[in-house]
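Quick start: what a row looks like.
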Amino acid sequence: MVIKKNRGISAFDLVCCALILVMFSRVLSALGLPKAIDFAHFGILVLALFSVGLHFKRITTIACPIIGLLLVFILSGIWNEAGVVNVVLGFLLLAEPFLLVLAFSMCIWTKENILSMQVLIGVFVCTHISFSYFQFFALGLIHDDVKGIFIGMNNGHHVGGALSMVAIVYYASAPWIRSNFIKLLISISLMIQIVMSDAKQVVLVFLIAGFLYLVLFSKLMSVLHKVGIILLGVFFTLLLVLYVPGFSAWMDIDVIIEGATQKISVISIAISYFDSSVGWLLGVGPGHSISRLGWLIPEYYHVLEPIGVTYHDASEAIIFANQNHWMSNSITGSSLFSLFFSFAGVWGDLGGGGLTFYLASWGYVWKYYAGEGLGRLLLIAIFIFGWVFAYLEEPGFTMFICTVIILMFQEELLAKKELN
């Protein structure tokens, strides 16, 4: 069931406005607007959902895990005496991509809406590339300082590189771009951005995701071809280990064991702050471990403190443990072994209950929107990111990737309708 498009500003328009704000919030802050602008997209997206809800007469499937996630946030907040603002902001940061999917799933996707979204995605990508090139060539910035539209973000270069990789997947497979030369030109432009920002870890994640997609889910390849890809992957890895010094150093088995032990130590640290066995189910509270909200609280404390935000010792303990080990700190360490990764943040804040509903929400996107195509590759990449980086609570990344997945799905539906 879908809603009819209203006169004036529709729910679709409001969701697009929220998407624009989340993608350009860092740019607007850099232009001098108050930091509160970083949170404006939450309000507009909620307004869009209310607008849709006035016309939608039944609950959709994805609303079930979202409601479950909200209940866990509330219960965890009450049990751990977290501030109301922790519960609200924590939920919105984590659930916003699913709220976006919910809103878009209840809107009619006309041909004009699909075209509008294609243009909007193009504006995001072109602006991101333009900013990155300007930062590199005009301002002389290099590596981690080339952040594109994610100006002022600590891991903005990684998030920007991830956005570029998602765009490469989308444009390389876009059926409406018939010229392979244009596809190649777009891909090269985006790859240059990734090189300038030194986001090589992002490329590795997508290579692994592509490998898993081809071997496990591609129906266009025979078993023999899949075996060949596996052998090629093993051979390529051996070459890296044997002939690339930096790579071989990190592939030492003792280094891997020490790094993995350091990474999963976040679990024991979080457990040490559980008041009871309830902690396994509800965690230490929203924003009380190493979730994205836990990172934001110190940065926005002057804004959030007057409205009752709470901070927890568990966050400080995890940050201290991360920075005091040579394999995970911000100077000599690698993000591969960092204690800051999304699934750890979700589990630390919300326990097993929250992580279950969170994964169920991504499962819905996989089942209903990933289809048989490259949407699955993007979701595999998301799953890998969740174990390595803290990207899954960064609205600019998750909102963009969910929009691309939905757009690919709607383009496929439109193509089928036109064939019939």
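That is the whole record. Residues 382 and 392 are 7 Å apart (CA to CA). The mean pLDDT is 84.
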